[in-house]
Amino acid sequence: MKYLILLIIQLYWFTKSKQRQPKCIFKKSCSRFVYEETLQNGFLKGLKAFNYRYKNCRSGFEIFRNPINNKIQALLPTNEIIVKEEIAERLINQFKK
Fold it and tell me: pTM for the full model?
């Protein structure tokens, strides 16, 4: 099953349009994240990674500057907070404007 997921992701990369702007809110794309988790940790961890990204990589997130430490962070739809290093650069650049 592990190799089936890896194959499906590779097919996705091969067929997706190179001109289409990425929409992922994370610095590491969702497909790359799931691929690496599956490759390194197996099928079940890959499924968990997919589920995590599916729940969080969509509308409903909010980028903000933390008033306590003045760092840029994002609040995900599942109410998890991620740090600037995990957020896509294009979103950080839009936030700074």
Answer: 0.84
